[in-house]
Design goal:
The chain is an alpha/beta fold. It is about 35% helix and about 30% strand. Helix 6 links the parallel strand 7 and strand 8 (about 210-215). Helix 3 (about 105-120) packs across helix 4, helix 3 (about 105-120) runs parallel beside helix 5 and helix 5 (about 160-170) runs parallel beside helix 6 (about 190-205). The protein starts with 6 loop residues before the first strand and ends with a strand.
Length: about 240
């Protein structure tokens, strides 16, 4: 399979294994995948299928053992850690199962953090405290949290914390948002709200989203649904 000409992110022949004592555990077994700009890709599979490992390789948090990773026409498989770090800070964003909000900061301050870190290097190029605050306020309004700007994480529900994390992920106008089990800690009602929010952001902002999940309901709001079994993509639609 050759790389799709219109793919924003492609992997070809990606493998990954780990050592468990004296035993070698093969986690990814020759993955080929294309992510197009504006797509919403859900990768579903049971625990141990390799989906989080694949997400980490797609998001340049880890390197493949073999195979290539091409982003925006450039092979980044062997890019320097400086280059990979810059891409993660300015072009990519991440939403994890456990939120990772700073507890001493308010929702508004948490959302501002990526812009502070990236500075003028981000696509949004939000510089200055007032500009960052204005953008963060707009993003929190978009995710339905205008009334929670000054609340700290321990004053928010699980669903609200994940909404803050999603707003934070959008702060630097990333080209791709990677989500690792974003509803894994939520009850069904809160999870449904996150499903709908990610779908709305994809449709209204043309935001490219890649999510890994074990939940059928999460996967079914995506435009492209893939199923992983034993380190391979077994089926898709």
């Amino acid at each position: 399979m050759t790389e799709a000409d219109d793919a924003l992110l492609s992997v070809r022949g990606v493998t990954k294994s780990f050592k468990l004592g004296r035993r070698r555990v093969d986690v990814l077994n020759g993955i080929d995948l294309d992510v197009r700009e504006g797509d919403f890709v859900a990768i579903r599979g049971s625990s141990g299928a390799g989906k989080s490992t694949l997400l980490h390789i797609l998001g340049l948090l880890d390197r493949p053992e073999t195979g290539t990773v091409v982003y925006d026409g450039q092979d980044v498989s062997s890019a320097s850690e400086v280059r990979r770090t810059k891409l993660r800070a300015t072009e990519f964003a991440f939403v994890f199962q456990f939120y990772y909000l700073l507890p001493e900061f308010t929702a508004l301050e948490n959302v501002c953090i990526p812009a502070v870190i990236a500075g003028s290097k981000s696509r949004a190029a939000v510089s200055g405290r007032s500009a960052r605050k204005a953008r963060a306020t707009d993003l929190l309004a978009r995710v339905g949290l205008s009334h929670r700007l000054d609340h700290q994480p321990n004053q928010l529900s699980g669903g609200e914390r994940q909404r803050v994390a999603i707003a934070r992920s959008l702060m630097n106008q990333p080209r791709i948002v990677f989500c690792d089990e974003p509803t894994g800690n939520l009850d069904s009602k809160s999870a449904g709200g996150i499903h709908a929010l990610l779908q709305e952001l994809n449709e209204s902002l043309n935001q490219t989203v890649v999510v890994v999940t074990h939940e059928v309901a999460m996967a079914e709001v995506a435009r492209t649904q893939l199923v992983m079994v034993d380190g391979k993509i077994a089926e898709g639609r």
